[in-house]
């Protein structure tokens, strides 16, 4: 199991802090947010907040961990659900990638928060690894169901999963509208689905 999935936040007090802090970061941005703002949003005293987190950077990393963990879990659930391969894959990409980012992008401080991605490199790497793992497994199941030997076609589940996520990353830079992103993602998924068809 991927490390990002192992980091489940189960302490209700921490979840309340992280949910409140996320709202404050989206409303004011990272640099303008204070520990007082976060304490108020979590309905607790500032000293009580410091018992849980040492500073707002620590809180931001914990939020990223929580959001990314939820994203991988949502993708895993969608891929294991019912429906055609393309429908399950689209649901996974929408929940884990497009919808997750739309709240941040729509925020007046979204650009500032996204710029902080570089300080989360280790977490983003784990998140991507978790998504690749589940997407590759779903591709493998579909190839086996269709009796397709990917290696004979010069492909692998890892290659196709990486191609999908690389395509989604590139698409994000070119298309900011979530609906446009969904259309582009659906086209990428269709290409992968065609590679998984027999004959």
Automatic annotation (TrEMBL):
Keywords noted in UniProt: DNA-binding
PANTHER family given in the database record: HTH-TYPE TRANSCRIPTIONAL DUAL REGULATOR CECR, HTH-TYPE TRANSCRIPTIONAL REGULATOR RUTR
DNA-binding region as annotated in the record: 34-53
Membrane spanning stretches: none
DNA-binding is among the record's keywords: yes
PROSITE patterns named in the record: HTH_TETR_2
Leader sequence residues: none
Protein name: TetR/AcrR family transcriptional regulator
Every HTH tetR-type domain range: 11-71
């Amino acid at each position: 199991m991927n490390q990002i999935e192992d980091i489940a936040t189960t302490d209700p007090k921490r979840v309340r802090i992280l949910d409140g802090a996320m709202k404050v970061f989206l409303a004011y941005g990272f640099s303008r947010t204070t520990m007082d703002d976060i304490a108020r949003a979590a309905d607790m005293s500032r000293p009580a907040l410091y018992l849980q987190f040492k500073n707002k950077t620590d809180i931001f990393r914990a939020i990223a961990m929580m959001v990314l963990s939820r994203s991988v879990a949502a993708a895993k659930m969608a891929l294991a659900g019912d429906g055609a391969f393309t429908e399950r894959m689209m649901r996974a990409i929408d929940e884990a990638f497009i919808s997750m980012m739309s709240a941040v992008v729509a925020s007046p401080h979204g650009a500032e928060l996204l710029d902080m991605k570089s300080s989360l490199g280790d977490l983003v790497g784990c998140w991507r690894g978790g998504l690749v793992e589940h997407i590759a497994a779903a591709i493998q199941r579909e190839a086996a169901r269709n009796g397709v030997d990917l290696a004979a076609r010069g492909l692998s589940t890892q290659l196709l999963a990486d191609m999908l996520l690389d395509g989604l990353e590139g698409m994000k830079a070119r298309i900011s509208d979530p609906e446009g992103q969904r259309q582009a993602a659906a086209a990428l998924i269709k290409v992968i689905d065609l590679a998984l068809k027999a004959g």
